[in-house]
């Protein structure tokens, strides 16, 4: 047994190193071109300090601004939880569906991607909500994801959003918009 211990210790050390790298992930963005949609340099020039500051007023203000969504997405990627925002956005897009034929296929795609157990980008919702949504998707309507979307919205608002406001991504973005004014 003794000859195995150095080998196990070496494997554990390697695992600790890999896990340590994950836990020290950076949430800093000195170059915002990676997070802003469209033409990033022009977008950053258009983003005012006042607009970026308003994102702290409420989570819904943040979600109503395309650059706010982009910055929040970048932050969620650092936390490995961008599926929550992607699901919320997919639901918002789903609610704009006008074709009954497309409604069923879109509902099924969203369910398989985000709701189903073991979905590739599964969101964290309780069993009852998951089952209600499963039943709703059988006869889809524009509101079939409302409960699940509400739970995910609430989770992001209470959990991720406050951390986003304290994050280096957000504070760096504010600093860059303020620097442009001086």
UniProtKB/TrEMBL annotation:
Q: Mind listing the GO biological process terms from this record?
A: negative regulation of signal transduction
Compartments where found: Cell membrane; Cell projection, Dendrite; Nucleus; Perikaryon
UniProt keywords (A-Z) are: Cell membrane, Cell projection, Membrane, Nucleus, Signal transduction inhibitor
User: Does the record carry Acyltransferase as a key word?
Assistant: no
What taxonomic lineage is listed for the species of origin?
A: Eukaryota, Metazoa, Chordata, Craniata, Vertebrata
- GO cellular component terms, semicolon-separated: dendrite; nucleus; perikaryon; plasma membrane
Does the UniProt entry include the keyword Zinc?
no
Tell me the membrane topology, using the record's own terms: Peripheral membrane protein
Q: Which domain of life is it from?
A: Eukaryota
Gene transcribed to yield this protein: Rgs8
- UniProt-recorded name of the protein: Regulator of G-protein signaling 8
- Recorded source organism is Malurus elegans
List, for all copies, the residue spans of the domain called RGS.
58-174
Which InterPro entries does this chain map to?
RGS, RGS_RGS8, RGS_sf, RGS_subdom1/3, RGS_subdomain_2
